[in-house]
Description:
The protein is of the alpha/beta class.
Amino acid sequence: MKPAIETIRRHGRPPFPVAVLHGGPGAAGEMAPVAQELATRGYGVLELLQTEASIAGQISELRQQLETACGGPAVLIGFSWGAWLACLLAARHPARVSKLVLIGSGPFSDEFSAGIQAARQSRLPPAEWQELSALFRGSGLDTPEGLERALELLEKAEAYAPAGLRPAPIAFDRSIFEGVWPEAARMRRSGGLLRAVAKIRCPVAALHGDHDPHPATGVELPLRGLLPDFTFRLLQRCGHKPWIEKHARAGFFQALEDTLALA
């Protein structure tokens, strides 16, 4: 039995109509800087941490978190895996969601996913790529030092020009990653992810860096053809995490505020 952990963090003052979802799966805490920045701009923001090791479990957990901490339908801001989770929640429980904001989402169709690892590899020297691969294959991520080094190498492979900000503390849970990601990849491969997305009726906005290894076309093209209310913005000189980028950070938060103002 897992020990009880804090899964709802509140930033700013109530009410809390906005919620951020982390990526990974299993990388709890990486969206804290986004929640904290939005709180300084007057928004009440929930940072929701998932602990379940299945997609159904995470959807159920997320619904319960929103019912507990959010008085009405929420704007869900999902990053990477969190973008998919936000979509799946909106498809299954539409009354809980007023709008979706997808940041650095993985491609929704399998045909766009083939080049992601190659893009990362091309941005690292061979020795560092081998080191990163070894950290993910073995138990390196299970130690604070190994996790810190993996995040450092991932940032080098995925960012355009980091601003040198202090990184957010991230707690990586391998069991969550190994439980959720293979299931999510199968869902994308089978077309089940897009079938779920097709049920979404709330507005959806996607913000995506032009230097993100996850191809922007893999988000824009599938969703534009499926969703009745969809907007897409490509952020220039920007990698996977816009909030850490020297050139894109200000524009990203302005785009996020503009999107929230329309919710």
